[in-house]
């Protein structure tokens, strides 16, 4: 997955990310190659191909220090509609096995990706605060797991385990969430900031981590304006400005409570000039580097 870039690179003095792979590093990535949840939700499929494309977009980024990470490969549904539950269980087992000694970034995949990691954190720590940058709440009440209900299913899991659970959705679109979804958010005692109000979200974002020892961070690429991220499963109408997002991402990571994160809903079938791939790769590198600083 990094091989093409290796062949193009010249000289050993130009350190690139693909040369920073290290077994047993405290920071790791794993891919979740699935868009079965998107398909179940009647959305635009294609996100299952994104983990390796994000890797390729990130591989040639330059590195000026001792940054390193481990690549744990991919978990895949194999494009099989009914294989999602098995794949989610496999991912959850892997996450559970590394939570004690690693910080992990999951490259999705549709937003069905998030459920595995959140459940693993609930089971391991007995609490979790979830921050989700997303135009959609993804709290549909459905029996079958889809890309539209990861956070409601996580809430139910926390309730069953009597765990401390909180959910904050940032950048939600009023036009993309029905009244039932707003009502569900209220019933969950969840918090949100609409995309049109994100300029004034500092207080909400800075205070949310105070109630939790561990934060799960999810970034749905459809939270961005479509000119920045055309390659997504469900394009945003309004969308976030990237510098504003980056300031909030930095604030969240500086809490030093994020130990598990994901990037979801990049759909390379609809990308233009690799804009969305490069945006996703930039965010991935920023998160991995923040994880690296936790251990340095």
Please explain how this structure is put together:
The chain is an alpha/beta fold and 296 residues long. 36% of the residues lie in helices and 18% in strands. The protein contains 10 helices and 8 strands. It has helices at 3-8, 36-40, 50-59, 84-98, 114-125, 150-161, 179-187, 202-207, 242-253, 275-295; strands at residues 27-33, 70-76, 103-108, 127-133, 164-172, 191-194, 215-220, 258-264. The chain has an 8-stranded parallel beta sheet, sandwiched between helices. Helix 7 links the parallel strand 5 and strand 6. Helix 3 packs across helix 10 (275-295), helix 4 (84-98) crosses helix 5 (114-125) and helix 5 (114-125) runs parallel beside helix 6. The protein is globular.
The residue ranges in which pLDDT falls below 50 over 5 or more consecutive positions are 3-12
Strand content: 15-25%
Q: Topology as H/E string? A: HEHHEHEHEHEHEHEHEH
Distance between the termini: 27 Å
The proportion of residues forming helix, as a percent range, comes to: 25-40%
Please list the strands of the largest sheet in the order they lie side by side.
Answer: 2-1-3-8-7-4-5-6
Which outline best applies? Answer: globular
- Report the C-alpha radius of gyration, rounded: 18 Å
Q: Characterize the largest beta sheet: strand count, sense, and whether it forms a barrel.
A: 8 strands, parallel
Number of strands: 8
By secondary-structure content and strand pairing, the structural class works out as alpha/beta
Q: Report mean pLDDT, rounded to a whole number.
A: 93
Tally of DSSP helical segments: 10
């Amino acid at each position: 997955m990094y091989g093409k870039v290796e062949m193009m690179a010249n000289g050993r003095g130009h350190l690139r990310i693909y040369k920073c792979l290290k077994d047993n590093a405290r920071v790791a990535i794993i891919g979740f190659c699935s868009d079965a949840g998107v398909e179940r939700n009647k959305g635009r499929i294609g996100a299952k191909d994104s983990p390796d494309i994000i890797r390729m977009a990130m591989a040639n980024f330059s590195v000026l220090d001792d940054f390193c990470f481990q690549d744990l490969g991919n978990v895949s549904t194999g494009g099989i509609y009914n294989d999602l539950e098995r794949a989610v269980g496999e991912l959850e087992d892997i996450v559970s096995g590394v939570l004690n000694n690693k910080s992990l970034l999951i490259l999705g995949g549709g937003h069905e990706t998030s459920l595995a990691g959140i459940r693993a954190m609930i089971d391991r720590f007995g609490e979790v605060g979830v921050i989700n940058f997303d135009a959609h709440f993804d709290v549909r009440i459905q029996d079958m797991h889809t890309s539209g209900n990861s956070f409601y299913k996580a809430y139910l899991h926390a309730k069953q385990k009597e765990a401390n659970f909180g959910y904050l959705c940032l950048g939600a679109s009023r036009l993309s969430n029905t009244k039932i979804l707003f009502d569900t958010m209220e019933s969950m005692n969840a918090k949100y900031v609409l995309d049109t109000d994100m300029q004034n979200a500092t207080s909400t974002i800075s205070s949310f981590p105070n109630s939790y020892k561990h934060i799960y961070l999810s970034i749905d690429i459809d939270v961005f304006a479509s000119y920045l991220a055309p390659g997504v499963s469900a394009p945003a109408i309004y969308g976030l400005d990237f510098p504003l997002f980056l300031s909030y991402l930095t604030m969240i990571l500086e809490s030093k409570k994020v130990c598990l994160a994901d990037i979801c809903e990049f759909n390379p079938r609809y990308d233009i000039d690799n804009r969305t791939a490069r945006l996703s790769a930039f965010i991935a590198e920023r998160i991995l580097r923040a994880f690296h600083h936790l251990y340095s």
